[in-house]
Amino acid sequence: MTHEVWDLRNLPDLSGRTYLVTGTTAGLGFFSAEHLMRAGAHVIATGRNPNRLALAKATLTGRVPQASMETLLLDTSKLGSVRAAAATVRARGRLDGLLLNAGVVHPPRTRETVDGNELVFATNVLGHFALAGELLQPLAAAQGRMVWVGSMATSLWRYDPVDPQLVAGYTPWRAYVQSKVATTALGLEADRRLREAGVPVTSVVAHPGYSTSGRTPGIRGINEPSRSTRFVDNLQAPFSQSKEDGAASLVRALVDPQVNGGELWGPRFLVRGEPRKAVAAALTRDPEVVARLWRTGEDAMGVRWPFEKAARGATPSARRRMPRRPGV
Questions:
Q1: Of the listed ranges 54-68, 92-106, 167-181, 217-231, the one predicted with least confidence
Q2: What region, left, alpha or beta, does residue 326 occupy, with left being phi > 0 and alpha being psi -120 to 50 degrees?
Q3: For the segment 13-30, what is each residue's pLDDT rounded down to a tens digit?
Q4: Which CATH architecture has domain 12-309?
Q5: What is the pLDDT of residue 232?
Q6: Mean of the per-residue pLDDT values for the chain?
């Protein structure tokens, strides 16, 4: 497999590997889980609604008869839910990869909070920051990978999250873009800190381009766009793609051995196309912004990543095999 050739229908054999995917009840998470299971992986599918999670499992096992999967309730906006889910995963054994996909794509019109944190920031950023920290040790034991789902919006709008909780100046669009700036910055910074600590886990950021429900196959209970949505989205066909195709960047970032930690991956033409390495927006690599966001994650969630424990739990040979961090 090379960077030039990538086909979701011809993924590497993932038999024996376990991946946790957050937000699998629809959209990118659903299709990412499907792609992984078709390649033989065992998937831990998470969602916050038990009925929708059960429907997603029934649908996935129907579409992939040989599927190996289990479900787990997880609401990334709530720290208690994150910690309970992480404890369950740690008790179940091996974990090769973590796809941090769940999120609020259409934020509420007015600012809402949960556990004292702004809803979009809590769901898209803080919950995943805490989950990755809570699962760092099993990931290190398997020399695994975490993938953070960013957005092309970070390259189009410069929203510095000085006030990540948007106590003042809340708008739905700003909440979304700031959450993706934070996600990208934390994903890149995580890789730097993991290498510095000698932890054999890679951290990668991926974005799906402009992937719309109206260009995605209809699946009962999973993707049911209205006729008007189909019409409008099909008008945008030259610069959009299905969520099934959008998941390709996420899956490649998660499983391709030629993808390096500290990289950003997305569609070739930004909005659509096969996955390729991209360049992260300067704002997401600003040391001051990154340090501020890491402190925010720690303080808001009360979670400190166990770098030293994870490094001690890895074998000496695994630490020696860690490649140097490429430029981004």
A1: 217-231
A2: beta
A3: 999 999 999 999 999 999
A4: 3-Layer(aba) Sandwich (3.40)
A5: 82
A6: 92
Amino acid identity, position 166 = L
Q: How far apart are CA 122 and CA 109, in angstroms?
A: 16
- Closest CA relative to residue 292, chosen from 106, 104, 125: 125
Which residue from 41, 53, 263 is spatially nearest to 150, judged by alpha carbons?
Answer: 263
260 contacts 327 by C-beta, under 8 angstroms = no
State pTM to two decimals: 0.93
**C-alpha span between 103 and 192 (Å, rounded):** 24
| 328 pLDDT higher than 80 | no
> What single-letter DSSP state applies at residue 308?
H
pLDDT band at 317 (very low <50, low <70, confident <90, very high): low
How many CB atoms are located within 10 Å of the residue 102 CB?
Answer: 26
Burial class for 70, CB neighbours closer than 10 Å (0-12, 13-18, 19+): middle
Q: Which amino acid is at 157?
A: W
Token pair, residue 309, equals: 């424990």
Exposed, middle or buried: residue 82 (CB in 10 Å: 0-12, 13-18, 19+)? buried
Please give the average per-residue pLDDT across 33-49, as a whole number: 97
Is residue 49 predicted with pLDDT exceeding 90?
Answer: yes
In which element (H, E) is residue 190 found? Answer: helix 172-197
Distance CA 25, CA 18 (A): 18
In degrees and rounded to multiples of 5, residue 104 shows phi and psi of: -95, 110
CB 154 within 8 Å of CB 174:
no
Determine the distance from the C-alpha atom of residue 132 to the mean position of all C-alpha atoms in its chain, rounded to a whole number: 10
